[in-house]
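Entry 12.
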Amino acid sequence: MANTLYNRGLAYAAQEGWTNIVMRVLLVRDTSTYTPDKDHDYLTDFTGNGGVEVTASGYARDTIESVTSTLDDTNDLANVDGDNLDFGEVVAGQGWEAALVYIQIGGDDTTPANDILLAWFDTDMGITLPADFMNGSVTLSVANIFQLMQGT
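Predicted 3D structure (tokens):
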């Protein structure tokens, strides 16, 4: 597969502003059969089409905090940055193949039919994917994953 930006998520982020939305990230288990489609709209499109989230002990979804958005005309980039993501102290035994970013609507994760898909990352996040959990902290750099989308 390839990194993907979802149409509805981009439209929503453009309307609301990158710093005014709550972006959450989940890790996709390597047994998932989901294929990203730019026309998928909501988190239920992921789960309803073979998407499987990691369930390993110690794992938890994370929120991108301290979001900033800057323009870099010199390098032809629009940068979205934030604090690094920390998915917890995950025990070994499962593998993961992608990170899925969605916009949380309603203040919590209890309404996945309202949570808007934003981005799918499965290519070169500084970690070779798919990967296995190795009993330890799992972190990702937000700047690195969003810069991967430039020119896509």
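Annotation: The chain has a mean pLDDT of 84. The radius of gyration is 15 Å.
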